[in-house]
Amino acid sequence: MSKDFLLEIGLEEMPAKYITASAKQLQERIEKWLAENDLAYETTEVYATPRRLSVIVKALAEKQADRVEESKGPAKKIAKDENGNWSKAAQGFARGQGVDPDTLEFREIGGVEYIYLTKEVTGANTVDLLSEMRQIILAMTFPVSMHWASYDLRYIRPIKWLIAMFGDQVIPFEITNVTTGNTTRGHRFLGEEVAITSPAAYEEALLGQFVVADAEKRKAAIVSQIEEIEAVENWKIPMDSDLLEEVNNLVEYPTVLHGTFDEAYLELPEEVLITTMKEHQRYFPVVDEAGELRPYFITVRNGNHEHLETVAKGNEKVLRARLSDADFFYQEDLKITIDEAVAKLKNIVFHEKLGTLTEKMVRVKKVALIIADQLNMTDAQKQKVSRAADIYKFDLVTNLVGEFPELQGIMGEKYALLQSEDSEVATAIREHYMPTSAEGNLPQSDIGALLAVADKLETLTGFFCVGIVPTGSADPFSLRRSALGIMRIIQEKQWNIRVLDILEDVVAIERADGLDDLPSKEVFQEVQQFLKNRLRAILAENQVRHDIIDAVIGSDLSVVPALIERATLLNKHRDADWFRLTMEALARVVNISKKYQTETKIDPALFENDSEAQLFEAVEKLKQAYPSLNVVERLQAFAGLRLAIDAYFENTLVMSDDENVRNNRLALLFDLASFIKEFARIEDINVK
To answer: Which of 368, 356, 435, 434 is nearest to 397 (CA)?
Structure first.
């Protein structure tokens, strides 16, 4: 037998951007609990609105399945004394299992007899277990949380009501003086409280109170209404998925409407209009067939179709005020030159321990030119890099960016072009912020990518120099994102730059500027490890096995694209027989070569068998060819050495009693190991 189970957490309005993840978390926690308690069910359905997080478990079994448990106790020689009586150890085991010692039996395992107890356990009734939902609710975690009243509980928002129903039976528990029941609340203005007769009636009961509980159905309703307006008005309404998700989580009963604004505002840069509508008002912009903005907007009301004209006028009034402010700020910004804006940056503190924005930009310029040298950029390109580094933060002092921080970089590019800056310099101003998220878009231009790497690397190293390092989940300055961005950009651009050399120079630049709270060697090692951890994350996301990741980036960080290519290649062949045999042979070379402690020059005259000579010849050929080989060819070359290595070890005692012979053999292995270690720490790869 089975019944549906409903859990609903009723709350004050939650921040829209956290609702979807919170609902998913509740669903996953309940599914995990069901699995841990061995409770059968068909499926779970999740519901979420601004005021509730809910899960329905369909066809939940009324009790746990009966099961047979087997427990192993002490060995027979410990369980019984010399007279055949139960020892204290056996009696203790029986007592712990709740049985009489005489019911115990012995079972032979690996030639040794052990006490073995088999007992049938009757499954618990589900209704007796469901009060544990209280702990699931309390265990929820959120990016933001709050206290309320005098309660110790921190939660995303105050809990206002709770439903926990198994069939038509309420599961009793209480949180912050809110007791579970079978009553939910409808739309704040259009609905009323309503009793839920059963979990199956939940969605329909809420719909009757102007609440579309299913987030996907609510979203589909929004999209459908927008498409209807598109057809009627002959408009195009770009569907921004992030905006749609946020708007969906702002309403319980969506009604789409449209409004207009003064066509004169279309003279503002498109980004200003879109940002004003999307970021501040949660409106969808409208474009024509050519993709040009039109003086209309789409918004979603949390309510029905009554008085839509009044609602539209109210939204138009708010948007008009916003656009008026934006227009004023834009016109004021046009009166200031870039050099005047840059001069103001010396009065803005980037961080109390890292100085002003002007001081930071000076350091970043030095880093950028170092990278430009490694990339062998032309003098003309370096001049653009230099100019971009001199001005790239200037728009932070503009009025529009002050009002709309989302436009930083974007307005910098706009204003730079209006003041006849080189287009590549202007693009770099916008792109240096990229990526703005872990998986965000990367800079496309070389100068923009270079400036992005220089800025992030300088920021990262500067904070490490003054002892500000991310701990646990705390990363207030987004240093992990910066490091990941550096790795992603270098990989995307396939830049074969020597990261460690650059990092060493950056540490020196920071310390020369007085950022020397920690020793340079410590900073160098910590920043390198921090960057390597981000590279690990990239490789792990690409399904590269962890031991292979360790083998490739376990030593010093080097040329990033080459590291990624080697890890990907090794991972591709990890299950092949030839790969296992090759790795075993190479690992044996590396491990034995660690015993090499002299600087012996290999003397073929000391070879005592053909296998030594053949391996020596193969290594010499590898030396000559290695610099010109690509990654695939290098792995093929190592695979080609396997038979020679196997024959060498089969016919040669490396640790000979003759010191000269021993050192000669170790020198040969050390010579070969130097190439192997350059490729990867092969000995770390698990081929068992």
So the answer is: 356
Q: What is the pTM of this model?
A: 0.80
Average pLDDT along the chain:
94
Lowest mean pLDDT among 25-34, 177-186, 199-208, 558-567: 558-567
Q: Choose among 261, 317, 250, 253: nearest CA to 286.
A: 261
Domain final position from 334, 359, 387: 334
pLDDT per residue as tens digits for the range 421-461: 999 999 999 999 999 988 899 999 999 999 999 999 999 99
Question: pLDDT confidence of 205, banded at 50, 70, 90?
Answer: very high
* Residue 343, in any domain of the structure: yes
Residue ranges making up the domain that contains 270 = 215-334
For residue 269, pLDDT beyond 90: yes
Structure tokens at 577: 């027989």
Quote the CA–CA distance of 398 and 329 in Å, as a whole number.
8
Tokens 């779970």 sit at which residue? 44
Q: What is the pLDDT of residue 519?
A: 92
Predicted confidence at residue 672, as pLDDT, reads 95
Q: Is the pLDDT of residue 140 over 90?
A: yes
The residue type of 662 is R
Show contacts of 337-346: CB within 8 Å, 24+ apart: 337/419, 338/391, 338/394, 338/415, 338/416, 338/419, 338/421, 341/394, 341/395, 341/397, 341/398, 342/390, 342/391, 342/393, 342/394, 344/397, 345/393, 345/394, 345/396, 345/397
Angle in degrees, CA 51, 42, 61, rounded to 5 = 95
At 402 the pLDDT is 94
**One domain, residues 351 and 329:** no
Position 326 in a domain: yes
Say yes or no: 104 and 140 in one domain.
no
Q: Kindly state whether residues 199 and 229 are assigned to the same domain.
A: no
CA-to-CA dists, residue 238 to 224, 274, 291, 298, angstroms: 13, 11, 9, 10
- Tell me, yes or no, whether 570 lies in a domain: no
Predicted pLDDT at 421: 97
Q: Is residue 554 part of a domain?
A: no
Q: Are 289 and 236 in contact (CB under 8 A)?
A: yes
Regarding whether 160 and 302 lie in a shared domain, the answer is no
- A 10 A CB-CB count for 612 gives 22
Cβ within 8 Å of residue 338, ≥6 positions away: 391, 394, 415, 416, 419, 421
Domain total of the chain: 5
Last residue of a domain, one of 208, 240, 261: 208
Under 8 Å CB-to-CB from 323, ≥6 apart: which residues?
261, 262, 265, 268, 273, 276
